[in-house]
Amino acid sequence: MKMKRIGLYAVVLLLILFLFMYPLDAYISKPGGAYDLAPIVEVEGGDKDDVGIFNLMTISIGKATPATYVASKFSDRMKMLPINKVRKEGENDKEYNIRQKKLMSDSQFNAITVAFSKAGIPVDITYDGVFVVSVLKGGASDGKLETGDKIRYVDGIQLKEAGQFASSITGKGEGDKVKVTVERDKKLLDVEITLREIPESQGRIGLGVEFQEDRLLATDPKVKIHTADIGGPSAGLMFTLEIMNQLLDEDLTKGYNIAGTGEMLADGTVGRIGGADFKIMAADREGVEIFFAPNDYLPEEVRAKNPGIMTNYEEAVKTAEKIGTKMKIVPVTTIDDALDYLKDLEPK
Fold first, then answer.
1. I want to staple 23 with a disulfide (CB 3.0 to 4.6 A). Which of 63, 130, 151, 189 is the partner?
2. Is residue 225 within 8 Å of residue 42, measured between CB atoms?
3. Which domains does the chain possess?
4. What is the β-pairing status of strands 290-294 and 257-260?
């Protein structure tokens, strides 16, 4: 009898472990948190006497388990995401994390440049090689280059200008060899690559990588943004507002607890992001009074092909109404929309 009981306990334990630990080929997203940006964004000598708060909003994403998968079917605060909605095809954990960090880095770059431009302060931008965003499976660089590599030289010639990398490959044919020098883990490595057809490119020859030209940004005063393990581009709008709040003597918050989301593009446009609904839930839970939501444009053909699709602002308003929050949802298409709203806002 005792052995049967032990066997039963073991079966129950294994079942619990399976339900809560076994990873499924999907993800679960949930509301994250609100983070006061004043200690995260540091403008050298900047104004820190403001009464209100600008918040960075997050969502939580983790691998689905049988238990969380079932729970997501009965909860408005959990959502199951197919793997292709989170990762690119063939992307592993390391590559995903690198891409998210790069998106965060780019959002910070744009936030700083836009904020300084609005404050009338010049910045210095210099070219900084080529960042490997991804390596195409079956392409010439498969197994030779890695996501996150920084290409510094091509055939011994240092990359110093925009467009130089693409022009150094243009004109070469299938079977030609190219030596690239990459920075990986703070070390320089020489890699010889034989050019071949780029997968699914209809005959184009190349290295078979997705790349992005990198830039270095120098500002006076200096800006540091401490984001730890937070990734993605969605904090760009709020970074921009916090940087401006420290650059300027006035308190842009007018004493309010303000949050928002949206990618900051180089021209000041606020880009669409994912998880607007969960960020509204998290903001309401944290006592946020005003929330900026991207009012992105969706062409009619996109709406026709995707029934039920909403702009971030529409999704935010729908969620706010559903949870009964008193939080004010403000649509923004550009940084100027947010600044104009704050300018007209009565101090608290």
1. 63
2. yes
3. 30-87+101-123+219-344 (3.30.230), 124-217 (2.30.42.10)
4. parallel
pTM, full prediction: 0.89
Long-range contacts of 210-213 (CB under 8 A, 24+ apart): 210/132, 210/133, 210/134, 210/135, 210/136, 211/130, 211/131, 211/132, 211/133, 211/151, 211/165, 212/102, 212/130, 212/131, 212/133, 213/127, 213/129, 213/130, 213/131, 213/162, 213/163, 213/165
Q: How many CA atoms lie within 13 A of 120 on its CB side?
A: 1
Please write the tens of the pLDDT for every residue from 225-280.
Answer: 998 778 889 999 999 999 999 999 999 999 999 999 999 999 999 999 999 999 99
Distance CA 223, CA 119 (A): 14
Q: Which residues are catalytic?
A: 234, 279
Q: Distance of alpha carbon 181 from its chain centroid, rounded?
A: 28
Give the model confidence (pLDDT) of 146-165 as tens digits: 999 999 999 999 999 999 99
Euclidean distance between CA atoms 68 and 77, whole angstroms: 11
pLDDT at residue 3 is higher than 70? no
Q: How far apart are CA 348 and CA 272, in angstroms?
A: 30
